[in-house]
Amino acid sequence: MVINGVPYHIDIRGEGTPVLLLHGFTGDGSTWDHLLPYLNNYKSIAVDLLGHGKTDSPEDPQRYRIEQAVEDLSVLLEELDITEVYLLGYSMGGRLALAFASAYPEKVKALILESSSPGLKTEDERKLRAEGDEKLADMILSQGLNEFVDYWEGIPLFSSQKRLPAAEQEAIRQNRLSQNPIGLANSLRGMGTGSQPSYWKELSNLPMGMLYIVGELDRKFCRIAVEMKESARNASVIKVPGAGHALHVEEPEKFGTIVRKFLKNT
């Protein structure tokens, strides 16, 4: 599907109320495959976000701005003749999900954020993070994906994934290595946490029910989730014991059960 001039890859399965699935950085729509058995009464719409998977990777970093990505999702739903969705986003995809819900609250039936945030609160924080994202983007393009993935897999955020079976760790690595270097670099430059606006103030205005799912080992995002809950109108937090940042990978059964229960009760 071509959206605002860019070919997007979308995987649609099942029938029922639509659930729009937004993956994290270095992933693609296939990273939700573990969740699909828990969505058997829904229409799942897994999008390869700009610069990821089989979706195109434009050369201009400005095309990746989160505001533009929001408009792409809005056009996607219009093309599919969908007026309202459940919206689930992980990490980078969660930031995009929150941006979309802020821009189009009438299109979001309920919002689920996995290990995500509304962005950074101050301009100084955003500037510092943008500088870090630019260094990572340069690393991807100058040193190649192998070097970058080695580095990315070693950051503390993903340390809990080292407990996964070797075959699963290798599958995750190969998925990361299959990405387009230009797409990843421009995602950092255009839609990184340092580049996006802060959506903290929007939390109190969002009318839909919200669920924040975090792993108890991911202490940073546990703190963020609690603070988000305090800022929002109608939100709850679930902390999954023994899990880290990528809950849908580390604890797929627990994650799927939580998501299915929330959708059923909303």
List its salient traits.
Putative 2-succinyl-6-hydroxy-2,4-cyclohexadiene-1-carboxylate synthase; 9 helices; Rossmann fold; 266 residues; seven-stranded mixed β-sheet; two-stranded antiparallel sheet
Q: Helicity, in percent?
A: 40-55%
Give the end-to-end Cα distance, rounded to a whole number of Å. Answer: 30 Å
Give the name of the CATH architecture. Answer: 3-Layer(aba) Sandwich
Q: Major β-sheet, in short?
A: 7 strands, mixed
Structure summarized in a few sentences:
The chain is an alpha/beta fold. Helices cover 41% and strands 17% of the residues. The protein has one domain: Alpha/Beta hydrolase fold, catalytic domain (Rossmann fold).
How is this structure best described in words?
- Residues 18-252 form the AB hydrolase-1 domain.
- This is Putative 2-succinyl-6-hydroxy-2,4-cyclohexadiene-1-carboxylate synthase.
- Its EC number is 4.2.99.20.
- Monomer.
- It catalyses: 5-enolpyruvoyl-6-hydroxy-2-succinyl-cyclohex-3-ene-1-carboxylate = (1R,6R)-6-hydroxy-2-succinyl-cyclohexa-2,4-diene-1-carboxylate + pyruvate.
- By secondary structure, this protein is of the alpha/beta class.
- The protein has one domain: 3-Layer(aba) Sandwich (Rossmann fold), CATH 3.40.50.
- It contains 9 helices and 9 strands.
- It has helices at 66-79, 92-103, 123-143, 145-153, 166-177, 181-191, 219-231, 247-250, 252-265; strands at residues 2-3, 6-7, 10-13, 17-22, 42-47, 85-90, 108-114, 209-215, 235-240.
- The strands form 2 sheets. The chain has a 7-stranded mixed β-sheet with strand order 3-5-4-6-7-8-9, sandwiched between helices.
- A hairpin with a 2-residue loop joins strand 1 (2-3) and strand 2 (6-7).
- It is globular and about 50 Å long.
- It starts with a strand and ends with a helix.
- The model has no long low-confidence stretch (mean pLDDT 97).
